[in-house]
Write a structure and sequence with these properties.
The chain folds into two domains: 251 residues, Aldolase class I (TIM Barrel, Alpha-Beta Barrel); 60 residues. It is α/β, with parallel strands linked by helices. Strand 7, helix 6 and strand 8 form a beta-alpha-beta unit. The chain is globular. Helix 11 runs antiparallel to helix 12.
């Protein structure tokens, strides 16, 4: 991997807004997303978002917002007026930095040029599209409601309206060959600009795919095939000038998702909406926050109590160190060992590091940071667990 640019210890402050509704539930999805038969009362949700934002702002006075991320669910099901109202509430409580990244996730089925222009007018300057596959049979198997042609049309609309856009693909799908993925990925590159998220399909607990796998009706590629798919992904993306900057995210230098970098660099962020998470710094230390997951319950609790936090816990130094490792080692730039020590109150075990270096799993950067090697990335969870022990 190429050497990375040194970054400051303070990764910035972001705001995450969770819109929990989808047109349908994908069989691989374990996100907090819900399908509703009746129209959503967006005005009522806007009022609740305003209330929660006011609550979080009181806990994070003086912060300057570097990024806002509308995630879900399917935020592109929101009216542009709803997005505008939420961004207005954020601007009311915090200073939004010039050039702040404002991202909205979208599904190709809900992409309309008029709606996208409305988001752009509201202040959104980056979209992330859930394309997932450029093969209609696989899209159907993944539970997606769009075709590959509709997906590419959505990408074209996004490219015409937004300066920055990204889209996701899922690989290591049932029956997928290395050659087929290679061709699909190269086709996708002809439609991308400077960022792409590429996720290996994993079976998550309590999903339809878990039930299908357990019933013997879903067979994923074995470990050797999955590794071959990983290797060809890295090779193609690096050659195209979009190397991995995080285990599943690729970008041209400077085009990384700034909001997600706040998470991975263990920065500070607030989360509003059903099931949203946050990490904020207070005089007593770093706090972990999360909200009521059920959308209608979230609404009721916010309207009654002024917020819907169900978790607001002070993290121990050990917990902070573990989270820092878990997030930071996902990045190809790695972590600053002295920051781990400042957060956790202890140093990383030099013998464990030496052993992992000898095995080729981790390496030091020229400026003394520790990072997982290209060889170690497919075994990231094991490497992190070893270092955290």
């Amino acid at each position: 991997m190429a050497s990375q640019t040194y970054v400051p210890a303070d990764p910035g402050f972001g705001v995450y807004v969770h819109w929990p509704f989808c047109l349908s539930k994908c069989p691989y999805c374990d996100f907090n997303s819900h399908v509703r038969a009746n129209p959503i009362d967006e005005e009522r949700f806007v009022a609740a978002f305003r209330t929660e934002l006011a609550h979080r702002a009181a806990l994070t006075k003086g912060r300057k917002v570097a990024s806002v991320f509308f995630g879900g669910g399917t935020p592109s099901l929101m009216k542009p007026e709803t997005v505008s109202a939420i961004l207005g509430a954020i601007a009311k409580h915090w200073t939004i930095l010039p050039g702040a990244e404002i991202t909205l996730e979208a599904n190709p089925t809900s992409v309309e040029a008029g709606r996208f222009r409305g988001y752009r007018s509201a202040g959104v300057n980056r979209v992330s599209l859930g394309v997932q596959a450029l093969n209609d049979a696989d899209l159907k198997a993944l539970g997606r409601l769009h075709t590959s042609a509709e997906a590419l049309a959505a990408v074209k609309i996004a490219a015409s309206i937004f300066d920055r856009y990204s889209f996701d693909l899922i690989y290591a799908r049932p029956g997928q060959t290395v050659e087929a993925w290679k061709n699909e990925l190269q086709a996708a590159l002809s439609h991308t600009a400077d960022h792409m998220s590429l996720y290996q399909l994993t079976v998550e607990p309590d999903t339809m795919f878990e039930r299908l796998r357990d019933a013997g009706k879903l067979k994923l590629p074995n470990a050797d095939k999955a590794r071959a798919l990983w290797d060809i992904t890295q090779e193609i993306m690096t050659k195209a000038g979009l190397p991995a900057y995080e285990i599943s995210n690729h970008a041209r230098p400077g085009a990384e998702s700034r909001h997600n970098l706040i998470y991975w660099r263990y920065g500070e962020y607030v989360g509003v909406g059903p099931g949203a998470h946050g990490r904020i710094k207070t005089a007593k230390g770093r706090r972990a926050q999360s909200t009521e997951q059920h959308p209608e319950m979230w609404l009721t609790v916010v309207e009654t109590d002024g917020h819907a936090l169900v978790e607001d816990e002070l993290l121990s130094t050990e917990e902070q160190g573990d989270e820092f490792l878990l997030m930071g080692l996902r990045l190809t730039e790695g972590i600053e060992p002295s920051r781990f020590q400042a957060l956790s109150g202890r140093s990383l075990d030099p013998q464990r590091i030496a052993s992992l270096v000898e095995e080729g799993m981790v390496e030091y950067t020229p400026h003394g940071w520790l990072r997982v090697s290209q060889e170690g990335f497919p075994l990231l969870d094991a490497v992190v667990a070893d270092l955290a022990a």
